[in-house]
Amino acid sequence: MKPTNETKESSAKFTCFRNRELNMTNFKNPQDFFGSYIGYYDGRNAKLVIGDVKADSPWPMFHLTFTDLDRNEVYVGTHQHRGNQGHVLTDIKLNKKGGGGAVNWSRLHLHTWDIAHLSGVSLWNGIEFGMYFKRF
C-alpha cells in the first residue's frame, strides 16, 4: 500500500502503510533545531539536546548536550550557525564533560520535510560515522 500525502501550509499529515497518522512540520528557520532528540550514534543509543544561547549576534547560537547512553559519556559545547543552508550545521566540536575527549561532527542535518528528524556525520581519525535522531 502506498502512502498518501495531504499538505496544509507548513504542516502535513499522511497516513503511512501501517494506517498510522503522523503530524509533520516543515523547516522554517535554524531555531527549528531546538529540542530534545533520542537516536543512534554509530549504532549506539544516544540522546541530543539542542538549546538556545542568548547571544548578541545576528546568527543563531546553539548549546548542544550529547549523551552516548551506551558508554555513559556526556559531551557539551556551543555552535554558532553561519551557513547559507539553515537546515545544516557544520564543523561542530563537543568536549567531553570532565575532560579527556571530544566528538567532532562534520554535518548535522535537520530534515526539511519533517523537522522531528536529524541526521549527521561524525568524524573520528578521519573516518566518517553516521548518526540519526528523532525528536521526543
For this structure, the CATH topology is Lipocalin
**Sheet with most strands: strand arrangement:** 4-5-6-7-8-9-10-11
Molecular shape = globular
**Binned strand content:** over 45%
Give me the oligomer status. Answer: single chain
Q: How far from one another are the termini?
A: 28 Å
Give the biggest sheet. 8 strands, antiparallel, barrel
Q: What does this molecule look like?
A:
This protein has 136 residues and is an all-beta fold. The protein has one domain: Beta Barrel (Lipocalin). It contains no helices and 11 strands. The radius of gyration is 16 Å and the shape is globular. It starts with a strand and ends with a strand. The N terminus is likely disordered.
What's the arrangement of secondary structure elements?
Layout (H helix, E strand, L loop, with lengths): L3 E5 L2 E5 L5 E5 L9 E7 L2 E9 L8 E8 L4 E8 L7 E9 L5 E9 L6 E8 L2 E9 L1
Antiparallel strand pairs: 1-2, 2-3, 4-5, 4-11, 5-6, 6-7, 7-8, 8-9, 9-10, 10-11
In short:
This protein has one domain: Lipocalin (Beta Barrel), CATH 2.40.128. With 136 residues, the protein is mainly beta. The model is unreliable at 1-22 (pLDDT under 50).
List descriptors.
136 residues, mainly beta, Lipocalin, three-stranded antiparallel sheet, 11 strands, disordered N terminus
